[in-house]
Structure formats: C-alpha cells, structure tokens
Known about the structure:
Layout: H1 10-16, E1 20-22, H2 25-32, E2 42-45, H3 57-74, E3 83-85, E4 93-96, E5 117-120, H4 134-143
Antiparallel strand pairs: 1-3, 2-5, 3-4, 4-5
Amino acid sequence: xxxxQKVTTDFEAKYWGMLFNVLSWEQLTTFWNKVDSSAGWYLxxxxxxxxxxxxxxxxxxxxxxxxxxxxxxxxxxxxCGIVYADDLENPSFIKIYDPHNLGVSCGSSGHHIFPGWTMxxxxxxxxxxxxxxxxxxxxxxxxFGG
Length: 146
C-alpha cells in the first residue's frame, strides 16, 4: 500500500517509510534488547488517543513485556513476522500488528491494514482506523491501569 499524497510529519515519514521485518521469535527476543527504554518512546495504541508525551522507561519496559507475551500467545505461527522497525539494531520506529487483525496477506485486498500499536521516538499522529476491536481497547486500558 502506498503512502498518502501528503506526508507532513516525521511520524508519518517513518510510518510510510521502509521498515524491516522481525521474522523469528528468537530475533524478536534479540530485538527487544536493542530497544532503549529510556529513549523517549511514544506508545500508541492505534485507534486510541494519541499520546501527548513520551512514556517513562518503566512504562516502555512494561509494554514490551506484555506485548511480547500477547504476540507469542496469540500469533499461532512458528515465526513472528508481525513486528517491523526502521532499524533492527537501533530502532526509532516500530510497528506491531495485531495477530487477530492481519487482513489479507500482502495487502492484496487494496485496503490498508493498520498496526495495532506503534512505538516511536517521533510524536505520533492519529492514524484514524475505521475499527478497533473492543478486546484490544480493554487490553490497552488494563495495561496501564485504566
């Protein structure tokens, strides 16, 4: 799926730019260790309110622990393949797809499949997905005591 006509923010440039896939579960474990939790990450559950400030190091570590757990439990494949980053060694932007909202393979349906979550060092913008599953809204709310 191609980028929209106007990319106006650093977040959008990263979102629509080239990303690299984390293919295996072993690679995902290694990848999480490369994420600097104190770097100033914006944690964005796509379809929820856009965060106005970066998360604390503790919140980032909490999120990584729980998203890793969710992905391994609910993505019933022997490979990962649903986490993407701008740089696998020193990431500044990460897209994480919801295992239960992957859509048609390769985007051949012509519809853009939104990730479930992004982690970004750039302030995010509202991606405005049409639908956000209720179970994911509840998961996100429970993650940070909401």
